[in-house]
């Protein structure tokens, strides 16, 4: 005991202890610490002056990533880094063909790295690796009847409507009507991003502990456990119905994602966490589609000259096909072009093709992507005048016109990705949900445009059709957060029922 006391009292022992403790911690968290150090030999944009912890540099990324990316390319660099949470390498789109299918540029890895490598509980759906195709289902959305101009916070409300439509396709009618599930499927994503933001304020070393105290991460875990109860109950309900003798319980129904998960789980012998998988699907489907629809509606409200031609197109296709079928959606070419133009002008992010470099990657011109780097390809070519003449103009017919040239019919569809159009990514990891999203968005727009009139609040002062005193409407501005481009949830659109709806939408469908 005396020896021990003596040891403790010896300054060397304490020093030794501290050093070995630090060494142990360093070895555990070395990867995380190393992750935060900028890469050597790659120009760093956005850092000036004394900022050893990169606090100011990170803030600049959050507020002005757009300017920083322009600055990097204006300096003639084809590769440079910004400091986000960790360094993010931005590549010029000229490398896109080398990046898109590279076996050592890991797609899922980039997501995992951004969401704590599955070490924090509550973020499991980010690690479920869910992709896959889902069948589209025609459904009727119900906005309430509105005779007067009624304000609608489109970007805040539309996720709930998209969630119902998506759930209807993914999980069937019962859960589409389950308000608690709809709430969870919308809120999980928002709350996960909030929790991630809060958690990143903590030192990496403290995060595994902090996760148990932060209300944001606790909320995530509560969403997951409630979600699990709802999904388990639905599975049980289906098994009971299948065993039931009564015919009404045993109505044939379409297979959906729940059946597929079950089959996948059986055939691969791998336990698939079904409820987390469902939340991952919602995460992929709801806010991306809502963002697109919000941007389309803001554009249509700002440039109302497209609305009547869009209605005419819908009516012509319905007249031709007798009703609105899945294949009718392919014929809505102006609508397809409007959606693609909106995605060009208002993409969800300033970078696409996010990847994690598993190895050092030399590119054809000698540029090196370091091992362990997070990379993304800049989408600034969306406004490159050599690709898109008058890029600053919103031209709803832009892609429609291109498709009319011989040989171009498929090349400029909303769902087609290319070197020039990679809002959905490009190559093997291009968003697999884009076909579903395109069909779903078209169905939404058919309903929104045929049933309602839309305009921007402030297009005229009091919504009575007469211009108000000095109120200019203009396209509602999006705002930037880091490389993300977000629609303003406070913007109100005004809508009212159209007097005459040319056809009975309730009668449409297959
Ligand atoms: C989801 O978010 C809305 C709006 O913030 C809130 O009213 C609702 O209670 C939340 N639901 C859940 C299950 O967290
Ligand atoms: C699935 O995830 C939920 C929530 O994270 C968890 O409670 C449950 O135990 C998991 N189920 C399986 C089979 O791993
Ligand atoms: C969307 O519609 C197109 C055109 O009919 C079809 O080819 C495609 O399979 C649909 N996508 C999904 C996911 O249903
Ligand atoms: C829309 O959002 C704004 C800002 O959040 C809010 O003040 C307004 O009351 C909302 N309007 C409606 C109709 O919900």
Description:
This protein is an alpha+beta fold and 510 residues long. The chain folds into 2 domains: 2-35; 92-507, Orthogonal Bundle (Cytochrome p450), CATH 1.10.630. The protein is 47% helix and 9% strand. The protein contains 17 helices and 12 strands. It has helices spanning 2-9, 11-35, 55-74, 96-99, 107-114, 154-171, 173-176, 179-200, 207-210, 215-243, 257-268, 274-302, 307-321, 326-330, 333-345, 398-404, 434-451; strands at 79-83, 87-91, 105-106, 150-152, 351-357, 361-362, 368-369, 374-378, 452-456, 479-481, 484-486, 493-497. The strands form 4 sheets. The protein has a 5-stranded mixed sheet with strand order 1-2-8-5-3. Helix 6 (154-171) crosses helix 12 (274-302), helix 10 (215-243) crosses helix 12 (274-302) and helix 12 packs across helix 15 (333-345). The longest helix is centred in the middle third of the chain and has 29 residues, at 215-243. It starts with a helix and ends in a 13-residue tail after the last strand. The model is unreliable at 129-145, 461-472 and 506-510 (pLDDT under 50). The structure holds 2-acetamido-2-deoxy-beta-D-glucopyranose (NAG) (4 copies). One 2-acetamido-2-deoxy-beta-D-glucopyranose binds at residues 133-136, 326-327, 329-330, 435-436, 439. Residues 124, 224-225, 228, 271, 273, 275-276 line the site of one 2-acetamido-2-deoxy-beta-D-glucopyranose.
